[in-house]
Amino acid sequence: MYGIVIYLAIEQLPVTVASIFLMTYNSRVNIALIGLGRMGKIHLSHLLNGIPGAAIAAVSDTVYPEDNFRSEFGGFLFSNNPEAVINNPGVAAVVICTPTSSHAELVEKSIEAGKHIFCEKPLDLSLEVTRELLRKAEVADVKLMLGFNRRFDPDFLQARQSAAAGRIGNLQIIKITNRDPAIPPVEFIKNSGGMFMDFSIHDFDMARYIMNKKVVEVFAKGLVFMDKAVGEAGDIDTALITLTFEDGTYAVIDNSRKAVYGYDQRLEIFGDGGMIQVDNTLYNRNSVFDAEGIHQALPLNSFTERYTSSYRKEMELFVEAVRNNTSLPVSSEDIIMATTIAYAAQKSMKEKRPVSI
Ligand SMILES: NC(=O)c1ccc[n+]([C@@H]2O[C@H](COP(=O)([O-])OP(=O)(O)OC[C@H]3O[C@@H](n4cnc5c(N)ncnc54)[C@H](O)[C@@H]3O)[C@@H](O)[C@H]2O)c1
Hints:
By secondary structure, the chain is an alpha/beta fold. It has two domains: 2-146, Rossmann fold (3-Layer(aba) Sandwich); 150-356, Dihydrodipicolinate Reductase, domain 2, CATH 3.30.360.10. Helix content is 42%, strand content 23%. It binds nicotinamide-adenine-dinucleotide. Nicotinamide-adenine-dinucleotide binds next to helix 3. Residues 34-40, 60-64, 82, 97-100, 102, 120-121, 147, 149, 198, 303, 307 line the site of nicotinamide-adenine-dinucleotide (NAD).
């Protein structure tokens, strides 16, 4: 109905005004979103609530019932078959939010269809496949961005800018604490690619991004500390990783799948001229002082709460790069290096030794 109203309205306009209107309308990037789970719903809500220059054109999920989709989200093209939305001629870009094991196939199909791609991390568990997909995207001249959203968190971004501006002198150590509030379901763990590929990969990207130096060595240790079901699924729930940068300085990353007090997301950068700290975002900023001590609210409890603005920002930047044909804020090298470090961390833990990059 809206289409008809718009069409009739345009018919009444002078030709030049109508064509300007149509050019503006058409310069929007029409997006198909694939995978309507946790991440898919976050990105869909941002796309529906106005990412400048973007419009949601189609959605696909292999199991989401179409009737439920229509009653929740309205009348977009919906299909249980992802290829139907990838190959839709009205779609210019694809946002892939499916489980990691399906990324490579969907990315490849999108490249073949000539569609720009935003894909949730990691691109693939295999470094060779990751490289090959990036190569194919380059050859096909389509943009391929990975969801390293933490780069766009306002507090982390500010820390990076302060460090780059020399506020704390020469950077010596970055410490990243990344702890989940609860162990994910074992089924998720089995298909995740393991802690380093699924979870710590964000930290590997952030360490490189903030220090702006090459990583030359990885030393990782990990154990099953909290839940033996994690070990039975072939994974760990606790990890400590040291990265060495090209100039001999360090990143220290500690990960846990379960912090009883919430989603623990902190960062510290130490330099010869000072230190920058980014603390947790709490539910409120009150401190209650009494005879027992000083009491504060807990940290936000999930990635959906903590990183909302960064998820919106990464989508804005992806759309901007597609519309203006400019560079993506996450490069192919960034994707390859974070995957390489995750791969080296697995090897280091298994072989109990530092691994050179
Ligand atoms: N950037 C982040 O902070 C962040 C956080 C969580 C998850 N992730 C990543 O996002 C991806 C999705 O994770 P999630 O937690 O949202 O998963 P999820 O299980 O909640 O949702 C996945 C959805 O994809 C659908 N699906 C599965 N295979 C499909 C296919 N071939 N085609 C279409 N639909 C398909 C499923 O039915 C499900 O609805 C993973 O790669 C994960 O690593 C990123």
